[in-house]
Design goal:
Largest sheet: 6 strands, mixed
GO biological process, one term: proteolysis
InterPro entries: GAG-pre-integrase_dom (IPR025724), PolX-like_BBD (IPR054722), Retrotran_Ty1/copia-like (IPR039537), RNaseH-like_sf (IPR012337), RNaseH_sf (IPR036397), RVT-Znf (IPR026960), SH3_retrovirus (IPR057670)
Protein name: Integrase catalytic domain-containing protein
Distance between the termini: 56 Å
CATH architecture of the largest domain: Beta Barrel
Number of helices: 31
Shape: flat
CATH topology of the largest domain: Cathepsin D, subunit A, domain 1
Mean pLDDT: 76
CATH class of the largest domain: Mainly Beta
Strand order of the largest sheet: 20-13-24-23-22-21
Structural class: alpha+beta
Strand content: 15-25%
Number of domains: 8
Keywords: Hydrolase, Protease
GO molecular function: nucleic acid binding; peptidase activity
Low-confidence stretches: 360-366, 466-482, 605-616, 751-762, 845-876, 894-906
Helix content: 25-40%
Radius of gyration: 41 Å
Number of strands: 33
């Protein structure tokens, strides 16, 4: 079509694309005149003959506009040798037709849903399991249609009814009562719903996505839509517009309220457009309920979460709830047989229920208190701890203990109601105090054991919401300090340790030889001095020389001034102190209570250089491994689409499993050099050894092909070493035949056609003197580093696709690298690889050596006949010689060839 051999059709002034390709399907857009169709048919036949591929004749179809007559369609069918298709038809599960979808077009979608439901109804599933199936399966089945098409409202209502009936169950083929309507269950969990995705909201969400793409995307579809419908950059609906464009126009007013421009870039609210943000824009903004925070807490049992939701939404079959369905069923509570069944009586007032709940290890109260027990009170989590405490007390109806003043002690002759009320307050206050004390550390329990509830909570607020003013909190933290942590200070001229476990080269000191003055003015003696070896979380070893062992000090101290003398650099930023040496990161000490603490058991963290966390804490790397080692772009799509929970995308180190299993060839960039005359460029390749020898016992052959004319020669060979002889034979023949000389010979990096040409030292680089331009050094790599190189042949899909080798250098006159394969003991040439230079530098900086086997080429010795001299023999002790390989190493045959400008061989 670009050469005007086939005519494309246009829609007015809009230029249509020539073709679309998806997987193994090809759609071609062209004009329907007979001559044009005959050309297209011939091109398809030539393609099948040249490529060896076949087109499925039974599946190919052509489609015409509605105004095309039957006779015209018949002539087109004869010209194209294919049948004429008719609309509607199904492609990838979606029905394609003119106009909007109709109800009968969605029969396949409904049958798919019925198929799932029929298999699920035969199993015993609780309501939480049904809810998960609805959210993960049923609501996702129609999404591939909603992305590009609008479903009929009757189909959406049918799907909603099927999901609602499945959620609330059925009996004898009839659906049970729906305790809450579908719109309420589709609300967000924080607003009291179940978080099911409403299909109408999903349709609006994908309409917003199409609206955003039509304005800001640079894809083929977006350019076509803008050229046809947005000539002046404005969105306006017209009567003959397509259903998709009308769908975009319906959400235009909603989209403009959330879009704004910043520095010439379109943003959605406060960030980039995503389906999750668009879906939140379609939902009604409802207040967050306090009860939902512990109803759906992860510490709860999944089955219990749904039961708690039913409690708070009056969905249990008690008589007062059944009255909403005009059902009046008199009943007695089966445990005590005294009162009518009600929520308050069953869960709060009934003594028999309390006894059963006290023996139930999975009771409601215990599960809620687990929230507090899982996170002990500390300075950093006080606000979260207090919030969780209020949730637990609110659920147990004891929150008033923290909010009102305690009542006065009633007199002895007070009324019975006053005595009962005061007794209930004392019991509840005792329970609240026990809950608070159980969520504290042992030291905090000791300090607050004699305090009442309200003064205790108020003191905790004073201590942890602001700066601590009492020294006892500091003493507690010092006494509870971890001995694997080190304090980095600038006011001390020595490294100090409190244990001799990792102290090497120890020299014991006499009493009074080295004395240190501490903060209170006292003098303490150093007992020993040596080199302390710290194993840092980054993997490096830090040698603290002249480290003093002082038993009277309970903190390990690293002197910053001593590190500076040893060549280390210190960077303080964002309440963290980072240690570097030669721009290599070693460790980070975080500020805690005004001190920079280096915890050897902590994870690697560096604020100055962005480093990935360990694989166990990096959620991006975790999902990369869980989802079959997919790339970060696909993980980002899953996160934005809501399939994965929201988390921060972080980079991670080189995944060696991906290098072993998914390494691909690097693409050839740029345009190849083409010859402008015959013999200007000759392509050569050697093939063999062939499994089946040709007649004459030939196992190899070499080809020479002219780049311009594609005219080629083939020579059979018995040995690969005959390649150069065949080249001379070919050269003599073609140069005499055409009267021209061969300008360039190009091979596939085969070592059988290369020469080793020595070069002399010059003032500038030989490349610059020969080419007249500066050489490109971007391909240079660190010698000796590890590298993953793709295998040419693999044994199967489940085997490694790359090998770990050593980088040795650069082959002459060949674009690529030389690598050493330690397993096969071979040196080979490859075009590209993944170099682990960062790991190589880290290994050198940490003192780890790189062991390479030195291979010595055998040297010929020239023997000279010399008359032997008499010498006195002196007996020497036997010396054990190192083991040397006795394998003979001979240089390749190609080293002996040298071609001069005259074409002769020397």
């Amino acid at each position: 079509m670009d050469c005007n051999n086939i005519k494309r059709f246009n829609m007015g002034s809009v230029k249509m694309p020539s073709h679309l390709i998806y997987a193994d399907d090809l759609m071609i857009f062209t004009k329907g005149d007979i001559l044009n169709l005959l050309k297209l048919n011939n091109i398809l036949k030539v393609y099948m003959q040249a490529s060896g591929q076949q087109i499925n004749l039974s599946k190919r179809r052509f489609y015409t506009p509605k105004s095309t007559s039957t006779d015209q369609q018949a002539r087109m069918a004869r010209a194209l040798s294919m049948n004429c298709g008719s609309l509607p038809f199904t492609y990838l599960g979606a029905t394609l037709r003119r106009g909007i979808l109709k109800k009968e077009d969605c029969n396949g979608l409904l049958s798919h849903v019925y198929k799932h439901l029929s298999s699920w109804y035969s199993r015993t599933l609780n309501q939480m399991g049904r809810l998960i199936l609805i959210k993960r399966v049923l609501s996702s089945i129609p999404l591939h249609l909603i992305v590009v098409q609008s479903l009929p409202r009757s189909i959406i209502s049918t799907l909603h009814s099927l999901m609602a009936n499945f959620l609330w169950g059925h009996m004898d083929g009839r659906a049970k009562y729906h305790w809450r309507n579908w719109n309420f269950t589709c609300q967000n969990k924080n607003a009291g719903g179940l978080g099911i995705r409403d299909l109408l909201h999903m349709e609006t969400t994908y309409s917003l996505k199409l609206w955003w793409k039509a304005q800001h995307d640079q894809g083929l579809w977006a350019k076509l839509v803008r050229a046809k419908y947005m000539k002046n950059g404005n969105i306006k609906e017209r009567l003959p517009d397509s259903p998709t464009w009308k769908r975009i126009c319906r959400v235009h007013s909603l989209g403009t309220t959330h879009m704004h421009w910043t520095n010439g870039q379109a943003l959605w609210d406060n960030g980039q457009f995503s389906l999750k943000l668009a879906f939140n824009a379609t939902e009604e903004k409802l207040p967050v309920l306090l009860s939902t925070k512990f109803i759906w807490h992860k510490a709860q049992i999944p089955k219990l979460r749904f039961f708690q939701w039913k409690i708070f939404n009056n969905c249990l079959p008690f008589p007062n709830n059944l009255r909403r369905f005009n059902l009046t069923l008199p009943s007695r509570y089966s445990f005590c047989l005294n009162n009518e069944e009600s929520l308050d009586h069953c869960l709060v007032n009934c003594t028999e229920s309390k006894k059963m709940a006290s023996n139930n290890t999975y009771s409601h109260s215990i599960n809620l208190r687990y929230i507090l027990k899982s996170q002990k009170l500390s300075r950093e989590n006080f606000l979260d701890w207090e919030k969780n405490l209020r949730i637990v007390l609110d659920c147990e109806r004891k929150l008033y203990i923290l909010e009102i003043d305690p009542p006065k002690t009633p007199a002895a002759n007070a009324r019975a109601s006053e005595l009962t009320s005061f007794k209930k307050y004392e019991d509840d206050a005792r329970d609240v105090k026990c809950i608070i004390m159980a969520s504290m550390t042992a030291e905090l329990q000791r300090l607050h054991a004699d305090m009442e509830v309200r003064p205790m909570v108020q003191r905790l607020r004073d201590l942890y919401q602001g700066q601590p003013q009492n020294s006892d909190i500091y003493v507690i933290e010092v006494n509870m300090s971890n001995f694997t942590s080190w304090v980095m200070v600038t006011g001390c001229g020595y490294h100090i340790c409190t244990s001799m476990q990792n102290l090497h080269e120890v020299r014991h000191l006499t009493e009074g030889e080295v004395q240190l003055k501490v903060g209170n003015g006292a003098l303490v003696n150093a007992l020993a001095v040596g080199t302390y070896v710290l194993s840092l979380p980054s993997g490096f070893l830090l040698h603290l020389k002249n480290c003093l062992f002082v038993h009277a000090i309970n903190r390990n101290i690293i002197s910053v001034s001593c590190l500076d003398k040893a060549g280390f650099s210190i960077n303080v930023k964002d309440k963290c102190l980072s240690v570097f040496r030669n721009d290599i990161y070693y460790a980070t000490a975080k500020m805690t209570n005004g001190l920079y603490i280096l915890d050897l058991d902590a994870t690697v963290y560096n604020v100055d250089v962005k480093r990935s966390k360990p694989n166990s804490l990096n959620l991006t790397y975790l999902w990369h491994c869980r989802l079959g080692h997919i790339n970060e772009k696909r993980i980002s799509k899953l996160r934005h689409s809501g399939v994965l929970d929201s988390f921060d995308l972080e980079s991670y180190d080189v995944c060696q499993s991906c290098l072993l299993g998914k390494m691909t060839k690097a693409p050839f960039t740029g345009h190849g050099e083409r010859a402008s005359d015959v013999l200007g460029l000759i392509h050569s390749d050697v093939c063999g050894p062939i499994n089946t020898e040709a007649r004459g016992r030939f196992s190899y052959f070499v080809t020479f092909t002219d780049d311009l004319s594609r005219y080629g020669y083939v020579y059979l060979m018995k040995h690969k070493s005959e390649c150069f002889d065949k080249f001379k034979e070919f050269r003599n023949e073609v140069e005499k035949q055409l009267g021209k000389s061969i300008k360039t010979l190009r091979s596939d990096r085969g070592a059988h056609t290369l020469n080793r040409v020595p070069s002399k030292a010059v003032e500038s680089t030989p490349y610059e003197l020969w080419r007249g331009t500066k050489p490109n050094l971007s391909y240079l790599r660190i010698w000796g580093c590890d590298v993953y190189v793709r295998r040419l042949m693999t044994s199967g899909k489940l085997y490694s696709k790359s090998d770990r080798c050593k980088f040795l250098g650069y082959p002459k006159e060949t674009k690529g690298y030389e690598f050493y394969h330690s397993t096969d003991n071979k040196i080979f040439v490859a075009r590209n690889g993944t170099f682990l230079e960062k790991e190589f530098l880290s290994a050198i900086s940490s003192g780890r050596e790189v062991d390479l086997e030195e291979i010595r080429e055998p040297q010929e010795e020239i023997s000279i006949a010399v008359e032997p001299e008499r010498q006195d023999l002196v007996s020497r002790p036997a010396q054990v010689l190192p083991r040397r390989s006795d394998r003979m190493r001979n240089p390749p045959v190609r080293y002996g060839f040298l071609v001069s400008n005259e074409g002769d061989e020397r």
